[in-house]
# Entry
Amino acid sequence: GAGVSQSPRYKVAKRGQDVALRCDPISGHVSLFWYQQALGQGPEFLTYFQNEAQLDKSGLPSDRFFAERPEGSVSTLKIQRTQQEDSAVYLCASSPEDSNQPQHFGDGTRLSIL
Amino acid sequence: QQQVKQSPQSLIVQKGGISIINCAYENTAFDYFPWYQQFPGKGPALLIAIRPDVSEKKEGRFTISFNKSAKQFSLHIMDSQPGDSATYFCAASISGNQFYFGTGTSLTVIP
# Structure
C-alpha cells in the first residue's frame, strides 16, 4: 500500500516480556517518528529519525525503550521487560523530509501488557 | 507540562452548525501548527495546517484562525456533518523535528 504500515496491529504480552513493533514508512520518506498514545490522550513524542540517524530520543520514557532504523527505511521500536504502564497505542509517522512537511501516520499497534 | 492546551474536551453540534475547537501554547519557537482528525482504530490524519506568518487559512469547510500575540489558534468546521464525528487534535512543532499534541476534542455531530 501507499501509506505507513505498522505491524502487528495488536500485541498482547505478559509483564516482563520483550516486544518489537515494526513500522514501514511511505517509500522515500526521510523522516520517521514514533509516538505513544494512551487511551483518551493525544500522541506523545518518543523518538525521531532522519534516514538512519536517530536525531532525537528525548521522549523515550526509560532505557527499556529502544528504536532503530538501520537502513533508513523500516523502523523497529523495542520495549524490554514490559510493564503494565507500557500499555498504549504506538503510532509511527513519516514525512518526506523535515522542515514541517506533513506527517503521515500509520494506524498504530495496540499493545496490552497483562 | 502540557505544551499545547486544547479545549473543549468534547463537543456536540447539530448537523449544519459550526464546530469550534481551541488551542493555546506558550513556546514562541513553535513555527508549524497542524490539526489532525482521528477515527477509532485509525491513526491521526492531517486536516489542515498553518504557519505563524498568516492569521487564517481555509480549506473547504475547515478554517484555522491563528492569533500570534495571544498564542492561540482554533479550528472551525463549517456546515458540520455526521461524518465529521471524530477526535480532533491540534499540534505544534519547531521545524518539524518534534510535534506536541493537544489532549484531543471528541466531536459528535448529531443529525
User: Anything to note?
Assistant: The CA atoms of residues 14 and 114 of chain A lie 5 Å apart. Chain A touches chain B at residues 4, 31, 33, 35, 40-45, 48, 55-56, 58-59, 91, 93, 95, 98-108 (CB under 8 Å).
